[in-house]
Design brief:
single chain, about 600 residues, alpha/beta, Isoleucyl-tRNA Synthetase, domain 2, eight-stranded mixed β-sheet, four-stranded antiparallel β-sheet
């Protein structure tokens, strides 16, 4: 008992961990033994260790150490992710504290600041993983923007473009006004909100020349004001978008709105005269059955606009303020306009009523205080049908096993309903898209070439009729960067340089990897896409098993977060109970795929056992 009470985990753990490192006991080279490979889910380069990382890496370490004890050649590869949106936001904030705006810098100057930030913060989480006792092969540490990984990413972009799987198109996308970049569908988090339904009056514009005639349909609803003027009522949760209205739409089968057919109405406050169109898309039961159509700011409205040849008026600037095109409230933030326009509509007698309404609002996964705005713009997309076709069979046929198996259904549902992946981001930190624009006359459609270098791009450009004598100076490199996940989907391949050097000794030995340990929240972002890349470039799956961890919650069942203040500092726990004590405490409460109710007393139990 005297010995146990004197046990100091700090002294023991640091001594032996250093011994293991000094003697390269975690390093791996291809040899005659059976390999056992795990690649770390690369944490953000800006990140610090949190309880989720603790759980994930503890499970990986258990698997790797067990493989070593079984005589396998265990290789656990560490690394970090450049995290475009998160890192750029941190750098922009730091510059703002120094009174510097991003737009006042050149791209090269900004990237210098970004690399400074990365070099300063990038190693923190890896050092913390050492404190946790993680037995990674640290000599293999990789970064998604190091030279090998960057070259791999650009080669894959060019290859997929040449295969016709990458295209550029004008599409309605999810826009983050704070980061001022597009987001993929998977980067939008929907929250239930208590909102309002604003019922607005759209007066009939042509009653003098085209008299309003009741049709006598059962359930018909005609609205008239005190002066006998007819109006339709439109229910909307977003009155700030009315400046972009270019039509009102009713369902041709809706009896209550038959009287509106063939008429024109006036957009309230804006005073723009717009047509009433008919389309079965309109939900007869929602609101009054009259829909305002704003093609520039809603994906379904955009489709209606294309079908009915409507004008598209973009009323937002990239930062979410109102643009000149709106003609009113110019420069004001969209959320401030929502409040102001409601007051102005009421004052003008154009607000029929305001109702309480529960709806789902999309927020940016990276800037969780920022509501996403649908926006029409040109972006780069990856066609996903081909990838869904090659990534579904391995999981359904059991070539890759999910633990727990319930996630197979989640995976299948996503792949069977997959949408094309928007892979461009309006950011400077990241892999710059290898596309070069050619000079064109005003109003002419854009022309571009895709190539790994400017020299190759120039060669390609000179093959185009009319551009035989173009110079390198005339080529404009695309400003956008690739979505961060476009690099991490190659992770199990690019870590062993399988894109740049196909069939090299290491990729043949270590690929496919054995097990992946990750959270179910990135099953689409990362797990599915790694399977796609593996099948496309290695003709084999990237791993044999996927172990999904649960979410670490407090003992009251609440998700751990900084805002709730219920997440303990992992390093503080390690200092108090030792790494093994904390790791054992985590594992005592961690069933596969289920959430973990974490209680610090478990760490105490773990320490006492050790």
């Amino acid at each position: 008992m005297e010995l146990a009470s004197k046990y100091d985990p700090q002294a023991v753990e640091s001594k032996w961990y250093q011994y293991w490192l000094d003697n390269k006991l975690f390093s791996s080279k291809p040899d005659g033994r059976k390999p056992y490979t795990i690649v770390i889910p690369p944490p953000n380069v800006t990140g610090v260790l949190h309880m989720g990382h603790m759980l994930n890496n503890t499970i990986q370490d258990i698997l790797v150490r067990r493989a070593r004890m079984e005589g396998k050649n265990a290789c656990w590869v560490p690394g970090t992710d450049h995290a475009s949106i998160a890192t750029e936001a941190k750098v922009v904030n730091r510059l703002a504290e120094q009174g510097i705006k991003k737009r006042d810098l050149t791209r090269e100057q900004f990237l210098e600041h970004a690399w400074d930030w990365t070099n300063e913060h990038g190693g923190i989480i890896l050092k913390q993983l050492r404190r946790l006792g993680a037995s990674c092969d640290w000599d293999r540490t990789a970064f998604t923007m190091d030279e090998k990984r960057s070259e791999s990413v650009l080669k894959v972009f060019v290859d997929l473009y040449k295969k016709g799987l990458i295209y550029r198109g004008l599409r309605m996308v999810n826009w983050d006004p704070k980061a001022q970049t597009v987001l993929s569908t998977e980067e939008v988090i929907y929250r239930d909100e208590k909102s309002h339904l604003f019922n607005l009056r759209y007066y009939v514009a042509d009653a003098d020349t085209n008299p309003v005639v009741p049709t006598g349909c059962e359930g018909e609803v005609l609205h008239q004001d005190a002066d006998g003027r007819y109006y339709a009522v439109v229910a909307t949760t977003r009155p700030e978008t009315i400046m972009g209205d270019t039509a009102m739409c009713v369902n041709p089968k809706d009896p209550k709105n038959q009287w509106l057919r063939g008429h024109q109405v006036i957009v309230p406050l804006v005073n723009r005269v717009i047509p009433v169109i008919e389309d079965r898309y309109v939900d007869i039961e929602f609101g009054t059955g009259c829909l305002k159509v704003t093609p520039a700011h809603d994906v379904n409205d955009y489709a209606l606009g294309k079908t009915h040849n409507l004008e598209t008026i973009d009323i937002f600037n990239p930062d979410g303020t109102i643009s000149e095109a709106a003609g009113m409230y110019v420069g004001m933030d969209r959320m401030d306009v929502r409040k102001q326009i409601a007051e102005d509509l009421k004052a003008a007698g154009l607000m029929e009523k305001i109702e309480d309404y529960d709806n789902k609002v999309g927020y940016s996964e990276r800037n969780q205080d920022t509501a996403v705005e649908p926006r029409l713009c040109k972006q780069w997309f990856l066609s996903m049908k081909h990838f869904a076709d090659i990534a579904l069979p391995p999981v359904l046929e059991g070539k890759i096993k999910f633990h727990p198996t319930k996630y197979v259904t989640t995976y299948r549902n996503w792949l069977e309903n997959i949408q094309d992946w928007c892979i461009s981001r309006q950011l400077w930190w990241g892999h710059r898209i290898p596309a070069y624009f050619l000079p064109t006359a005003e109003g002419e459609e854009e022309k571009y070439v895709v190539a790994l270098t400017k020299e190759e791009a120039l060669e390609e450009a000179r093959k185009i009729e009319g551009y035989e004598n173009i110079t390198a100076d005339q080529l404009v490199h695309d400003e956008d960067a690739l979505d961060t996940w476009f690099s991490s989907w190659l992770w199990p391949i690019s870590l062993f340089d399988g894109i740049n050097n196909p069939g090299n000794e290491e990729i043949k030995y270590y690929y496919p990897t054995s097990d992946l340990v990750t959270g179910p929240d990135i099953i689409f972002f990362w797990v599915a896409r790694m399977i796609m890349a593996g099948e496309e470039y290695m003709k084999d799956v990237p791993f044999r098993n996927v172990y999904f961890t649960g979410i670490v919650r407090d003992k009251l069942g609440r998700k751990m977060s900084k805002s709730l203040g219920n997440s303990p500092d992992p390093i503080g726990l390690i200092e108090k109970y030792g790494a093994d004590g904390v790791r054992m405490g985590m594992m005592l409460s961690a069933p596969a795929g289920n959430d973990i109710l974490f209680d610090e007393s478990l760490c105490e139990q773990g320490r006492n056992f050790n």
